[in-house]
Structures are given as structure tokens and as C-alpha cells.
Design goal:
Blueprint: H1 2-18, H2 34-53, H3 58-61, H4 72-90, E1 95-96, H5 106-125, H6 129-133, E2 136-141, E3 144-149, H7 151-174, E4 183-184, E5 189-190
Helix pairs in contact: 2-5, 2-7, 4-5, 4-7
């Protein structure tokens, strides 16, 4: 009975990992619309994040380059917050600050981060220039809202999440656990 439970648990865990989005980047859209470009940038972030976080060990989470720096896990929490903002922009809802509930464990945090990106990527893929021109970023803190143009998505949370995903890659390499061989960010595939 124990073998059956273990096999079931192990195979369900593998299925859950395989079901995460952005293991590969899909085929490019046929036309170069503003929505397609934003969507593709989000796909690039999702792919990078997927492979930056694939195979992280518990010991990697504590890695901290200096006492004043964020740990790898704290960096993942920050990326989650940025990806939550990206998703909220696409869903046309405010991003509450400070963020409400951040998932408490690595697997849930990773899955939720990738799902936020998938939600945003799919929505932006369907938007034309007119719809994008009406979108804005809304932050809410203590019941007060601040509104910013959609342009800030590009130089704000999207660029910041890419930047910090690169930090995760460097942190894990420094901790002795580099990303998998064969990850090709140019092609969006793993060989």
C-alpha cells in the first residue's frame, strides 16, 4: 500500500510540474500588434522564470549574496508581487499595496507567479491598440488609488521582474545549483 501511495504522490507531483506554463515559448503571432508584443515579452519573462526556478533546492532558498541583500527566496517573493501587478493590469483591477496573501511555500509561490503571467499573457494577446490605450496601472494603498499609464508596465513591473529573474539565475549559480543545461532563451526551448 505504501508503494502505491508513494507512486501516486510522485506521479501527481510530476504531472503538476509538467502542467506549469512557460516550459517553452509558443509560436509567434503572425502580426506585430502592440498587444502581441506585450504578450511576447511576458512569455519571455515566463520562460526565463520557469527555468530560473526549475530544480531549486531548499538550501538554495537561503542563499544571500550579502547580509544586506535579499535572499533568493525573498527575491522570488518580490517577483511574485511584480507578476501579480502585471496580472492585475491585464485584469483591469487595482494592485493593493502592500500585497495581500503571498503563497507560503516555494511550489505554491512558483505556480502562482507563473499563473499570473499566463493570465496576463493571454489577455494582452487579445488586445488591440485602442483597448491598450484605455488601460492603466492602478495601485491602492490604504483606500487611496494612484493611476499610471500602461507605458509604465514596460519600464516598471515587467522590466523589474526580468531583472530579478536574472538575479535568481546568478544566485542559484553562486549557490552551486545552476539552471539546467540546454535552456535556450533565444529560441524559447530547452534542448
Amino acid at each position: 500500500m505504501k508503494k502505491i501511495v508513494f507512486i501516486f504522490f510522485f506521479s501527481t507531483s510530476l504531472m503538476a510540474q509538467e502542467a506549469l506554463p512557460f516550459r517553452e515559448i509558443g509560436n509567434a503571432p503572425q502580426d506585430y500588434t502592440a498587444g502581441n508584443l506585450i504578450s511576447r515579452m511576458i512569455e519571455g519573462l515566463g520562460f526565463r522564470y520557469y527555468w530560473a526556478t526549475e530544480g531549486l533546492a531548499v538550501v538554495d532558498m537561503a542563499y544571500q549574496p550579502s547580509p544586506d541583500a535579499r535572499s533568493l527566496y525573498e527575491t522570488l517573493e518580490h517577483i511574485y508581487g511584480l507578476c501579480n501587478v502585471i496580472s492585475n493590469i491585464a485584469l483591469v483591477r487595482p494592485s493593493v499595496r502592500p500585497p495581500e496573501a503571498i503563497p507560503a511555500d516555494f511550489e505554491s509561490l512558483r505556480k502562482a507567479t507563473l499563473e499570473h503571467l499566463q493570465t496576463a499573457q493571454k489577455i494582452f494577446l487579445s488586445l488591440d491598440a485602442e483597448a491598450l490605450s484605455k488601460m492603466e496601472i492602478i495601485f491602492e494603498r490604504g483606500g487611496e488609488q494612484q493611476h499610471f499609464p500602461l507605458w509604465n508596465l514596460l519600464n516598471g513591473p515587467l522590466s523589474d521582474a526580468l531583472y530579478h529573474t536574472g538575479q535568481v539565475v546568478v544566485f542559484r549559480r553562486s549557490a552551486g545549483n545552476p539552471i539546467a543545461n540546454g535552456v535556450n532563451v533565444f529560441l524559447g526551448k530547452k534542448n
